[in-house]
């Protein structure tokens, strides 16, 4: 039910944005963005040593390519192709030493399909991105000490394909000669699970959530007159 509600909100948002009047001159941009990401694994039943939020956060990086098209007043769409590092970090002992930590790092190629809603003047705009994303895990690695009694989260990833919802809020500044710079904070909630969640499996839930801050550089593709 939760997943259907999220998808319904997303569909309604996209329909409302496309109901806006069209721009006299559509805007088209391409560019790059990158930044830092904090990732956390949400497990049910809970993984030992991850009760505190900061005990499960893994700090890593992300970046990729951006294509943006705005053909309507205040809205458009944005496509991305990103590399993103996810995973989690857990305490495997009561001691707070570095040797008592286990880290699981998962590298993804992701494609967000976003509605881009903007407001303000052309030289300086605030914007909001919302939409679905799909991804595929291309590499996984681990380090540190594993917990001696709980082992289910150390198995090889069973579901490499991932899908979910992402939303971002940012600020864009346009310059006359060197392009467009933007800063965005983004939250992503995965609707897929790391591990199988059948009734006979250990985890009923094993999905990631991420929070990222990235800086982007775009340039406008102008039509020839």
Can you describe what's shown?
The protein is 8% helix and 61% strand. An 8-stranded antiparallel β-barrel has the order 1-2-3-4-5-6-7-8. It is mainly beta. The radius of gyration is 20 Å and the shape is elongated. It has 1 helix and 8 strands, in the order αββββββββ. The protein has one domain (2-220): Porin (Beta Barrel).
Identify the overall geometry: elongated
Order of helices and strands: HEEEEEEEE
CATH class division: Mainly Beta
The percent range for helix content is under 10%
Query: What structural category do the secondary elements indicate?
Result: mainly beta
Order of strands across the widest beta sheet?
1-2-3-4-5-6-7-8
């Amino acid at each position: 039910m939760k997943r259907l509600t999220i998808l319904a909100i997303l569909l309604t948002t996209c329909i409302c944005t496309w109901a806006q009047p069209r721009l006299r001159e559509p805007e088209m941009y391409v560019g790059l963005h990158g930044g830092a990401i904090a990732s956390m694994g949400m497990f049910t039943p809970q993984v030992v040593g991850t009760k505190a939020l900061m005990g499960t956060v893994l700090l890593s990086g992300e970046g990729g390519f951006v294509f943006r098209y705005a053909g309507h007043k205040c809205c458009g769409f944005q496509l991305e192709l990103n590399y993103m590092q996810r995973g989690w970090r857990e305490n495997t002992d009561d001691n707070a030493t570095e040797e008592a930590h286990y880290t699981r790092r998962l590298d993804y190629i992701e494609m967000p399909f976003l509605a881009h809603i903007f407001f303000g003047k052309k030289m300086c705009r605030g914007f909001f991105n919302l939409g679905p994303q799909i991804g595929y895990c291309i590499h996984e690695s681990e380090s540190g000490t594993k917990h001696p009694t709980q082992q289910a989260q150390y198995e090889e990833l069973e579901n490499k394909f991932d899908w979910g919802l992402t939303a971002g809020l940012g600020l864009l500044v346009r310059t006359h000669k060197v392009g467009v710079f933007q800063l965005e904070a983004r939250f992503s909630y995965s609707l897929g699970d790391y591990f199988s969640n059948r009734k006979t499996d250990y985890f009923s839930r094993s999905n990631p959530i991420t929070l990222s801050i990235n800086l982007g550089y775009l340039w406008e593709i102008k039509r020839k007159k």
